[in-house]
């Protein structure tokens, strides 16, 4: 039995802050086998099949064979641009560590909640697989068990299931998920402290990836209106972020090598390149993979934690072992291959494979101000100018701010960490706080930043409030009650906040990075303030000045017809997943 040290997932601290590094811990892992299976039958539903699958706002960065070779990849290969998600009636299995509304720490959960039903509506049979972190009251025990083997130790997982909005929602049950998280907040899916991983995250996600590969083969799901039985082997796995990186490796080593899943494809989607899963090199032995995969994981960086020098990098393997690499906006795709800073040292790997950026959609039901249950009054584009001031007053009352429907109110919602530029925002507040405005900041994350938030009211009792909780109703009130939404992200793969804000008629003031310029038209549907320094160790005074300048620019339209015109242009846009699937260029 191999005993290996396990560290945690690390991003590139220098560029993006990343997470701190706990001391390496031990965990046992090696070898995997599937032992028992039961059959499950009997879920019903109805849907029709059509055959449209066209995705918009897409740009592909083609594999740059010459550049990749120049940068040391002798085997740089050109990937076929053959469609693997185009066409209808496919069986698509999304695999993700979070899936809203059952589990969510941020945008990844949102995407897994919204995209699968849109694909199902386009005629595909769609499943999501995510861990069962809680006793979800709407998911039934299938009684199907699978045993996976890690380090000569067997782990029995159980599948739970529900069928909603045309999608099979499958949950993998094991104490490494439920017992660790249960009773805690949704923000604890990866570790007890923001930015720090559980010591056994490699074990957890190894178990999860193995279970996910079994789900389409063994779950006998009857949706009742077109689809029944197991999904079978001709499936497309869409696996998301580093937690699922082992999936294509096991797909090849355990299945394809044994004649199973011969036509299955593996599509990797990057939601955030800053979290890569960098671990000690010796941990490779625990993954139960043949040595032929070692080179895909092999990674050198200049950091001393968790250990100096050679490491394994889960995301690197996820990219290299995939059939296709996607990310969540075209602008982000181009940033990822632009250099080591924005590609967080995987730029050269992505140059080798190529990457396609597709702008995220959003959940237009949750963020529809006509039916939003969290608002004191509902509104649409024709009534926004009357309703928003009422909501603003309710928000002010709730937060103990002076009630004044005419004062411009600026919001910020997001994780409190360097990616989101919350540190830049804190330093920029003096630049605009005296402009007769109010500011509301809602976020959770790094403890030091949460403390700063709590100080806001003391510092600016008449103008500012900070709320350091994960508070969905308040997020809805801010999105509708504010006039402007500040998004000072250092980098933002797509960003959902700006979409949610615009849908509610709140004007985004955002940096020019990732999906922000893909979704905001400067001076038309918002204000762009340029790209910021991505070095997370510093707050660049130039960026602080840029925030102040952009806020003043936005304030100049407040109270003028230009504001209502902009609100209208924001609100009439189609941000739905359906819209994304319907319009624009063909996906691949
Ligand atoms: N304190 C709080 N209370 C209530 N709700 C809160 C909250 N803080 C955040 N939220 C909600 O969480 C979500 C965050 O969405 P983002 O796109 O900013 O996510 P994130 O950066 O996690 O996702 C990553 O993945 C997504 C999906 O691909 C990319 O859009 C994004 O750029 C990338 O960083 C939004 O729905 C927002 O309303």
TrEMBL record:
PANTHER family linked to this entry: GRANULE-BOUND STARCH SYNTHASE 1, CHLOROPLASTIC/AMYLOPLASTIC, GRANULE-BOUND STARCH SYNTHASE 1, CHLOROPLASTIC_AMYLOPLASTIC
Pfam (any one): Glyco_transf_5
EC number: 2.4.1.-
Region forming the signal peptide: none
Reactions mediated catalytically: an NDP-alpha-D-glucose + [(1->4)-alpha-D-glucosyl](n) = [(1->4)-alpha-D-glucosyl](n+1) + a ribonucleoside 5'-diphosphate + H(+)
Residue ranges constituting the Starch synthase catalytic domain according to the UniProt record: 91-350
Localization in the cell: Plastid, Chloroplast; Plastid, Amyloplast
An example molecular function term from Gene Ontology annotations: alpha-1,4-glucan glucosyltransferase (UDP-glucose donor) activity
All residue ranges annotated as the Glycosyl transferase family domain in the record: 405-530
Xref: InterPro entries: Glyco_trans_1, GS/SS, Starch_synth_cat_dom
Metabolic or biological pathway, per its Swiss-Prot or TrEMBL entry: Glycan biosynthesis; starch biosynthesis
Family: Belongs to the glycosyltransferase 1 family. Bacterial/plant glycogen synthase subfamily.
Gene3D superfamilies on file: Glycogen Phosphorylase B
Domain of life from the UniProt record: Eukaryota
Keywords, ordered alphabetically: Amyloplast, Chloroplast, Glycosyltransferase, Plastid, Starch biosynthesis, Transferase, Transit peptide
GO biological process: starch biosynthetic process
Protein's recorded name: Starch synthase, chloroplastic/amyloplastic
GO cellular component: amyloplast; chloroplast
